[in-house]
């Protein structure tokens, strides 16, 4: 692993209570280096979001280890997170999860700036972050309900990045946006993260967007990573049958692409039994 890695997760297990217990993440290992965007893709229920929440400490892991800059990530509790750990920030699928409806958006971005200053990071301004996410500076006095969904997600990104994180975890941050803005917002996140030297774990079910922004990609199914490698070769010549099925389901730009029928139980059994592929 590179010495500049900001995230090192090894053999992570996430288990939810039940009869029997549900194993959402089953021995997954991933790393993210500074300046790198690593994507985690797969269909709903594959374990992507559970792993993302484990990485930031929202979910308690049942096995394995998660380290941020070589320091163990402890589960979040009622006490304030240690200052050093505020270098991990998360952007959620629903920006309402990140934005307080009762506070002006400028004040919320200022909270991120204060978090960065507490760690001794260089100062910045609310206006600077609004400009960087493509919003006019005069909106700083408005409340979240006065913005569209896409604008709110840009504000959530500004709030997270204003804290100058070393690691940004983005859990399906574009799935609620309209198709015309999904790629632009994803690229905005990649560019801002790379510019700051941070690493990003980008969770999505949309391989078409991932192809454009990720340096490496991990493909999840059934709580496990089935294929992982640099994004370009993984896209060009997927080795695992599940990755092949995901790519086959993406329509061609002219709308003529073939969308296969839902996979059968036999298909899923084959996917689970084929050994993982890493390159």
TrEMBL record:
<feature type="domain" description="ABC transporter">
    <location>
        <begin position="7"/>
        <end position="247"/>
    </location>
</feature>
<protein>
    <submittedName>
        <fullName>ATP-binding cassette domain-containing protein</fullName>
    </submittedName>
</protein>
<keyword id="KW-0547">Nucleotide-binding</keyword>
<dbReference type="Pfam" id="PF08352">
    <property type="entry name" value="oligo_HPY"/>
</dbReference>
<dbReference type="InterPro" id="IPR050319">
    <property type="entry name" value="ABC_transp_ATP-bind"/>
</dbReference>
<comment type="similarity">
    <text>Belongs to the ABC transporter superfamily.</text>
</comment>
<dbReference type="GO" id="GO:0005524">
    <property type="term" value="F:ATP binding"/>
</dbReference>
<dbReference type="InterPro" id="IPR017871">
    <property type="entry name" value="ABC_transporter-like_CS"/>
</dbReference>
<dbReference type="InterPro" id="IPR003439">
    <property type="entry name" value="ABC_transporter-like_ATP-bd"/>
</dbReference>
<dbReference type="InterPro" id="IPR013563">
    <property type="entry name" value="Oligopep_ABC_C"/>
</dbReference>
<dbReference type="Pfam" id="PF00005">
    <property type="entry name" value="ABC_tran"/>
</dbReference>
<keyword id="KW-0813">Transport</keyword>
<dbReference type="InterPro" id="IPR003593">
    <property type="entry name" value="AAA+_ATPase"/>
</dbReference>
<keyword id="KW-0067">ATP-binding</keyword>
<dbReference type="InterPro" id="IPR027417">
    <property type="entry name" value="P-loop_NTPase"/>
</dbReference>
